[in-house]
Amino acid sequence: MNEFLEQFAIESRELVAQATEGLLRLERAPQDGECLDAVFRAFHTLKGGAGIVKFAAMERAVHAAEDLLSEARTGRREITTALVEGCLASLDQVGQWLDTLAGTGELPEGGNDRAEELIGRLAAIDGHDRKPARSPDVAHRWLVRFRGRHSNCTRAITALRYAPGSDCFYQGEDPVARIGTLPQLLAQELAPVNPWPSLSELDPYTCNLVLMALSASSVDSVRAHMQGHSGECEILELAPTSDSAAAHAGLSPRVREVLHSQLALLMVVSPEQFRGRVSSAGVAAANALRSLRRDDDAQTVRQATDTSLDSKTTAPLSRVLERLLAAEAQVAAGAGVSHAPQTSSPTLRVDAERIDALVRLTGELITAKHALLHTTARAHAEGLALATELKGVSAVFERLIGELQQSILALRVLPLRTVLQRFPRVLRDLSSTLGKAVTLDVDGDHTEADKVIVEMLFEPLLHTLRNAIDHGVEEPSVRIERGKPVVASIQIRAAREGERVVIEVEDDGAGVDIERVRRVAVDRHIATEEELSTMADVQIIDLIFSPGFSTAATVTEMSGRGVGLDAVRTAIERVGGSVSIASRAGYGTCVKFSLPFSVMMTQVMTVEAAGQSFGIPVEALVEILRVPQSEIARVGSAQVLVHRERTIPLVDLASELHGTRERQTESPEAIVALAAVSGEVIALRVDRLGERMEIILKPLEGLLKGMPGITGTTLLGDGRVLLVLDLKEMLA
Amino acid sequence: MTVRTAERELIVLEGECPSEDAEMLLQRLLAAPEAVVDLQRCESLHAAVIQVLLAAEPALRLPPADTAVGNWLRAVLLRVITD
Questions:
Q1: Looking at the DSSP assignment, which residues form a beta bridge with residue A694?
Q2: Given B22, B71, B83, which is nearest A204 (Cβ)?
Q3: CA distance A36 to chain B (A)
Q4: Which CATH superfamily is domain B3-76 in?
Q5: Residues near A447 by beta carbon (within 8 Å), at least 6 away in sequence
Q6: Is the dihedral of CA A660, A661, A666, A672 positive or negative?
Q7: Mean pLDDT, chain A, whole residue set
Q8: Chain B residues inside the 8 Å CB shell of A201
Q9: What's the pTM value of the predicted model, to 2 decimals?
Q10: pLDDT digits over A335-388, tens only?
């Protein structure tokens, strides 16, 4: 695929995801104008992209949906389920085309029939739900009152109502400062969300504010300013008056030049010149603004001039001038990107492979570091003059590599949103397939974790969700009988807890049927009646994660292949996580995943001894040798290898494992791995060399806990457990 | 520190008042509910501090209305709608 198409595919996928998310939100909140705008923009940009790469079928399919959304924006059409479905169908089609593109590297051919089909479907939604344009003033009563109190702000073209989340202060948000720095702010007001409590009950760090503002800046630049806000934010375009239209035309180049030169003059002012220069700069700037009928701004400049004169500093006036020029720059920028997707943040899109390459390189560097430390230790032992200096350099090198590794691992961090945002759509399909109405709430999707973790989560979570709807949520009639809301609710909550990320999936269904679990466990020979009788309920419920418990024959429509819950547990444990389940009969089930925040990938070399595989951390490996038996000598009860005139302690892994000193079979040659640990070298005799692989090291637990000489384990692809050697302990 | 009690019934907020000042201001106001809050040398207030002032409604001393800060403080502190 050429780079152009590749970029198109990446961007289109993002836009499809954005539009899908927006449409689902819109279906629940059809009055959310901001959301409608975002969806419309996503479709518009998709269409534009398709036009650029000359993908006519996609352009037409998306265009048809965009038309409907455009009508909805102007109030000529209502947001209905049919409309949302139609638009989702066109996004599905785009998704399929993108899949084809990814597979073949070519634009799909013969998409026209599909496009026609979609256009026909979208046209069928046409007509019956047209409605007269809605008046924003009726929907937004606050705006009528707010504008009424600020009727003098004739230049206002944008109104904003911002209700920050109650925990916004903890996220470093200062809503008042944010509103105070709005471009071309004309008026602002604060009001409490709930009446203020008595002082003794007041929690100053729970935000209880609603902020309203009028601005002479465009909706787009106000929205850009509000990007990343928490809570609810309504941004409305006001009907322009002739005055504000003139103001919106912005500063003329001439006026901008005047402001700039006044600002420059204010930079260098000697005490004698102060009064004269500040007043003339103020007058010049105010006059220039007045020439554009921007009387409010001229007034602000005049006030700032007085403040400057009183306080004997140029700061107040220059700050106002800077703000005017900066706001103008924002208007200009806002106009330029008005159709860009809302996520245009200053980030760099980097191919994940490049980051992985960096991670690998860092691994190599760490290996080199160990060699350096080893050399340093040798130089020290041999009393070389440079040893001390070398030691200093090594220490710096070691610290820098540590930092490098940390920063690179941080690059691989992704918000859980990247996986969680797919679920509302999945749930919508699942609940319609299974005929159960379910709402999904996702909380904490900004929680971050390593890319490996985030990416592996989709299948386990999908499976859990499907289980919840399929087995947990009761039939609608049963729910009514039990006095529950007909629409079931599923919550996904994610949070960071220290070094771990915890994700809970909770439903309000019937809970796990313990009797059924008992029956199935006995039927499928997972546990005997006798064993079950000694188990607590929690343990019995946990049996559903046992291999062979799930009817793996059920092929899920969503994942395309049957997986039992045991596969969920295996997948989670492979990355060092755990999964548990809690259930209350009649009230619901909560599945809790606990995962490491980051995964330390360790490079190991696998070796075999006495038929068992071991891993040796590559960073410790110095050399692999084939040595004649004669170079291995016995010193008392121990063995040593004489290599390059050095004597190195040798550990025979097979003998260690069997607890004997004699080898079963003697071969003329021995395979020996030399490893260095804190400057000391150890020789490990092995039977066979395996391969080099990257693994996620898990600390020892359960029966293996406390096993000497082993630092951790990992699951191999074939399900075997690889024991990774703790060389430090072997040397001790 | 930007919050200080100048005399028994006067609390002075000076310079840029960060969110941490909210708790301290609240404590002072609880201790002296009739105190006057002097903002004449204040340059900015974090929203958390503003909340305390809005909830407590103490008597305020503000910078002149024709200064940028004075103007701003009046907008955020005085024009509170209760609907």
A1: A603
A2: B22
A3: 28
A4: STAS domain (3.30.750.24)
A5: A415, A416, A494, A495, A496, A501
A6: positive
A7: 80
A8: none
A9: 0.46
A10: 433 333 333 345 677 777 788 788 778 877 877 777 787 788 788 888 888 888
